[in-house]
Specification:
about 10% strand, mainly alpha, about 110 residues, Rossmann fold, about 40% helix, single chain
């Protein structure tokens, strides 16, 4: 398990690179990378990602996007839900925009 953790720490650029630390000891951005590292090794057919960089500073956010696009996205079908346009553009090959809730018929039409 430790070797697997060390491999994921290197692959996802998790800092500090110490497999003995508890997850709570890492910054928010690195905790997000840990989640992606753990979930990416699962044998799921679809990967759902909701607001992955919410509450994370810009630098860790960009690092997370880089790690996700390299390691998770090409390997699986995924659905990303986000309000961050740069994040969506970096991680998506198709985009669906939802605006003003569910579809509604216009009055008089």
């Amino acid at each position: 398990m430790r070797k697997d953790a060390e491999d994921k720490i290197q692959k996802y650029d998790i800092r500090p690179p110490n497999a003995r630390l508890r997850t709570a000891s890492f910054s928010g951005g690195n905790q997000q990378k840990i989640v992606v590292a753990v979930k990416s090794s699962a044998t799921r057919r679809c990967f759902w990602i909701g607001q992955p960089t919410r509450g994370v500073d810009i630098a860790p956010s960009n690092s997370f996007i880089d790690a996700s696009s390299r390691c998770v996205m090409p390997a699986r079908r995924s659905c990303l839900v986000s309000v961050e346009l740069d994040e969506i553009r970096a991680l998506s090959d198709r985009i669906l925009v939802m605006f003003a809730g569910p579809c509604r018929r216009r009055k008089g039409g």
